[in-house]
Task: inverse folding
């Protein structure tokens, strides 16, 4: 029996939810039953069917993720190749660290089914990206190449240490420069420097890119690294910024703002990011809805991994829901 034989999306989604709760979130069968409002015996039968139909193998096959209705709606609304929305827990974490950890499981599941030996994975920075790479098997990451999408070596070091599990023919292309330098002239000079230029070329040639999405707030990576101050972030927000991707701030429609900061930045541009065949964005938290929406409208992503509450808010915003407009302030 194959998954294709199921034309009842509710039944198919229930199988996916049960499998996710049990195998990914590691809930017990009793907890799965309670979460789905079914008996323990029914939960057991769902898990057995999920194995029989091939939904569950050694990983949760990403070809089945489309069964989640929210993911399907996100794909249709924003023209995505894939949208992965882990089912909400009874008590969904709100702490940004815990949200990142939960999304990272989904991101790692997706990458396990996509990364092939010898391919290059270009990396953005941030807690969720690092957490995702931590969850990939070392035997897989040891057989891929990696490249950093921006400068900021200290930001990438923990992730790259985790990626390279053993010596081999594969390599890490690291841009040996800060994310932001002191002047546009220095930035231009560094971009033309041989080793920096070669690292940027590795980025542009990548088959996949994994990026986080930042909001315009004091916890933004650029602020944490000391490249921008809280006062500067306030001014950037007044100019219409709703979020940043790889240190580039954009507005609600995904248009990159004309900021002096960008002239001092070391990294690939948004057009170069779009040209990478498969860009995976991982972000959650209701405070990032505006940022994620802008990134989607800007066409920066091919794949989105996010939480159920954010997925619903994104769909409501794109549909022009008045309630979403009224609460937009808290998203940005």
Result:
């Amino acid at each position: 029996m194959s998954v294709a034989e199921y034309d009842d999306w509710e039944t198919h989604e229930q199988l996916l939810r049960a499998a996710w709760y049990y195998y990914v979130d590691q809930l017990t069968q009793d907890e799965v039953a309670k979460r789905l409002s079914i008996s323990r015996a029914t939960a057991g039968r769902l898990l057995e069917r999920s194995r029989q139909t091939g939904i569950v193998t050694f990983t949760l096959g990403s070809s089945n993720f489309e069964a989640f209705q929210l993911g399907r709606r996100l794909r249709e609304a924003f023209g995505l190749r894939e949208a992965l929305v882990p089912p909400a827990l009874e008590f969904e974490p709100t702490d940004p660290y815990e949200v990142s950890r939960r999304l990272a499981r989904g991101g790692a599941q997706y990458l396990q089914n996509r990364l092939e030996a010898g391919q290059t994975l270009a990396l953005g920075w941030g807690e969720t990206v690092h957490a995702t790479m931590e969850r990939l098997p070392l035997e897989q990451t040891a057989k891929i190449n990696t490249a950093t999408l921006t400068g900021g070596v200290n930001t990438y070091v923990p992730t790259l240490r985790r990626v390279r599990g053993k010596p081999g023919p594969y390599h890490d292309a690291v841009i040996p420069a800060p994310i932001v330098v002191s002047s546009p002239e220095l930035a231009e000079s560094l971009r033309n420097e041989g080793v920096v230029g070669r690292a940027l070329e590795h980025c542009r040639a990548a088959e996949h890119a994994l990026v986080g999405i930042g909001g315009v707030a004091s916890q933004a990576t650029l602020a944490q690294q000391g490249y921008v101050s809280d006062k500067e972030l306030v001014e950037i927000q007044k100019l219409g910024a709703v979020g940043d991707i790889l240190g580039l701030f954009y507005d609600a429609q995904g248009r990159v703002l004309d900021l002096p900061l960008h002239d001092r930045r070391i990294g690939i541009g948004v057009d170069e990011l779009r040209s990478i065949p498969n860009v995976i964005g991982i972000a959650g938290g209701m405070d990032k809805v505006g940022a994620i929406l802008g990134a989607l409208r800007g066409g920066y992503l091919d794949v989105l991994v996010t939480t159920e509450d954010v997925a619903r808010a994104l769909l409501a915003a794109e549909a022009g829901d008045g309630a979403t407009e009224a609460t937009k302030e808290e998203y940005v």
In short: The chain has two domains: 1-57, 62-331.
